[in-house]
Every structure is written in C-alpha cells, then in structure tokens.
C-alpha cells in the first residue's frame, strides 16, 4: 500500500467557502488524500479564495508567491486555486503565477476527481463552468466520522440581486436552491455524527425556494419547519438574508419555531435612500426599519446583525450620517463594516470614488458606534440565564467554550460539561469579545 497523499486547504472569505472546503476535502478523500494542517508536508495545496474586496483577492497572489518555493522541496506538489478568485480570473491566475496547476470555480467542485487525474498525467487543469447539475448531489459522500457540534449546510447558492458594488452574482452565478429531500438527508447525517446546531447557508438564503418531495416548492420557513422535526438537532440558524426576501412565514417562524435561534443577520449596507438606490438595493432605510419592527414584534429578544459599506461612490457626509442614524435606531448586537472596494466589472466601479482618507475616517466612526452598541448589548446579558452549546475546552483549566442562543461566545468557568452538551448557565461578566458564565 502506498502512503496516502496529503491535502492542505486554506479557506478565505465567507462561510460558504468553509462548507465548500469541507466538501472538497471529502471529494479528494475519495482520491486517496488525507488532510494536513501543515502546508510544508502537503502533496496538494488548495487555496479556496474570496473576491469580494480587492485586498481579499490580492492576498491570494502573495500567498501563492510564498507557497511556490515548496515546489522545489517536493516536485510532486500540486497547487490549486478554488473559489471566487478562481471563477473571476480563471486562466489569468496561471499566467500571473505559473506555479499554479489547477484552477476550479465554485460551481465545478464535483469535477475535482477528474481534474486531479489530469494533474497526475502531468497536465494543468482548469474548470470555471456553470453546469446545470447539482454539484452537491455529485459531491455527496456521507462519511461517518464524528463532527463538531455546530455545522454549516449550504441550501442555496448564487444571487440575482446585482447590487452595484458586488461580485457575487458573477462569481457564484444565478440563484439556485437545493431540493428539500437532499438537505434533510444531509442534516440527518450530520446529527447522526454529533451535530446539534446547523447553520443554513446561502448568499441569499431567505430567497430559498427548493423542490419539496410533493412537487411543491418550499420557502426557507418551510424548510426550517421540516428541520425542526429532526431528533437530535437542537438549533437552527441561517445566513445571509436580504431584506426584500424576509417574508411573513419566516418572521412567524422566529416567533413559533423552538429550534430557530433568536439571531438575524440582515445586511442593509447604508442608511441613505439616495445611496441605497445607487447601490441597486431596492429597499429604503424606512422599509428596513419597519421590517425590523415587525421581526421584533414576533421575537422581541432577537439579536440583529448587519453589514455596512462606507465610502460607496458619491457618498456624502450627509449620506453617511443617515447610516449612523439607522444604526442608532436599530441597535445591533453585531455589525460588520467595510470600506467600499471597487471591483472590476461591477457598475459602481465606473463611478466617482470617495476620497480614501474620508472613507477611512468614516470607517473609524462607524466602527466606534458599532463597537459601543455591541458592548452594551453584551453587558446587558450579565445576570441572565442562557443556554450554551459547548464547542470546545477553553484556554484555562476547567473552562469550556460555546455559543449562546444569541451567538455570543461564552466561557463557562469550572465546568464539567462535554463538547456537544447544551448547558444552562448564568452570565456573570461581559468581556470585550465574549461572556463569562457559571453553570446553573
Ligand atoms: N449576500 C450577502 C453578503 C455578500 S458579501 C448579502 O447580500 O448581504 C458580504 C458583505 O461584503 C456585504 O454585505 C457587503 O457589506 C460587503 N461587500 C460586498 N461587496 C463589497 C465591496 N465591493 N466593497 C466593500 N464591501 C463589500
Ligand atoms: Fe452581493 Fe447584493 Fe447579492 Fe448580497 S444581495 S450577494 S450584496 S449582489
Ligand atoms: Fe467571497 Fe465568494 Fe464568499 S467573493 S464572500 S467567497 S461568495
């Protein structure tokens, strides 16, 4: 028997890439690869890349430059680029960095086994097609190995919204939903392997509209209700949602579905209607605020999270103030803010850019406000009794770490809980990025 080949995967970008990396590792497992955490000992290195902002995309080339010398030590080493940079730049990647042997776009991962075969024959391999078949159906291998208590499950991919700043519709293609039966099958497999929390993923997850077994399309709410019936599964989350797809049945599920967690990531991007229009967001600040009112009426304790872009082309100080006002009105438990990054091929790239120093200044101001809100909401958790899904031991003796219903990281002191347990705790202190708790 020959020793198994070693695979090293580095993942950038969003959770969908994390999920895809797991699937690629399983697929290459079928080709005789086992995963390693050390690039130096790998026979194949895969970078699963992100194209969302310029910095993310450029990082890939500097990483490739660093990895290239490993080929001198191991002439059989193959280097591959997957993910959204692979989709966006294709062959150009091999031109810019000839050490790259394989380029594979996100819709073609089920082609990996045959691509790997080409590499064995000394050829380079490139595939950035958008094929019709469900890649996850072909990629499905159902390993039995134990899993960590919390897992991702992609249910929807792609985006038809075409926000003026965003590359996702180009790198991930049109919106596609997976059938309900396959998602349920995968969820059952995960729970059999120790998973107790599933986060449903999609670039526009609440636009989900998958085939039900009865030939009727299911919404995301319908899917969540089906998952709610799986024994052993205790928590359901989903991300990322678009305000326009936040329909009444999903809002009602937040009130009625006991396994659906009180946390919602609902990016708005800006609080200025003028900018939202220029972003092609097709909602207003007011409609977003009314939507949150409705969601909070259904589930008063829901923790809101969002994404913001500052320095979008033509954004004025007045527009930016409107964003700060919206943040103050919503009160976010988590929020992510980004300086606008001009992306080739997107409509906004052609427009007048905001002065970079001004954009930096706005980023600092928005982050200060967001941090203040986050910390106040964390401080409000002190004294409350919450449920924590235990994920791993902490750094200190006797400490276990997990997540609350609201997705806060919680350190439980002097705990005898095991990984995968759901424990009732009392929050005793709010730290900068986590909460401390004692068992109840
Ligand atoms: N599908 C999700 C998120 C996609 S990307 C959604 O619709 O909300 C994640 C976040 O990156 C976006 O919400 C946006 O805030 C940010 N982003 C996307 N393109 C960007 C760009 N060109 N520059 C800066 N931030 C960007
Ligand atoms: Fe990008 Fe907009 Fe689609 Fe989100 S909704 S992925 S921001 S185009
Ligand atoms: Fe990045 Fe692609 Fe995800 S661009 S954010 S890895 S969909």
Explain what you see.
With 440 residues, this protein is α/β, with parallel strands linked by helices. It has 4 domains: 5-127, Methylthiotransferase, N-terminal domain (Rossmann fold, 3-Layer(aba) Sandwich); 142-261, Transcription Regulator spoIIAA (2-Layer Sandwich); 292-380, Transcription Regulator spoIIAA (2-Layer Sandwich), CATH 3.30.750; 385-439, Beta Barrel (OB fold (Dihydrolipoamide Acetyltransferase, E2P)). The protein contains 15 helices and 21 strands. The chain has helices spanning 15-29, 54-67, 70-73, 83-89, 92-96, 112-120, 135-139, 168-171, 180-192, 220-228, 248-256, 273-278, 285-298, 317-330, 356-380; strands spanning 5-11, 33-35, 44-49, 78-82, 102-104, 125-127, 150-154, 156-157, 176-177, 197-201, 209-211, 217-219, 235-239, 263-265, 303-310, 334-339, 385-393, 400-403, 409-413, 422-430, 435-439. It is globular, with a radius of gyration of 22 Å. The chain starts with a strand and ends with a strand. The model has no long low-confidence stretch (mean pLDDT 95). The structure holds S-adenosyl-L-homocysteine, iron/sulfur cluster and FE3-S4 cluster. FE3-S4 cluster (F3S) is lined by residues 13-14, 16-17, 50-52, 83-84, 167-168, 171-172, 203.
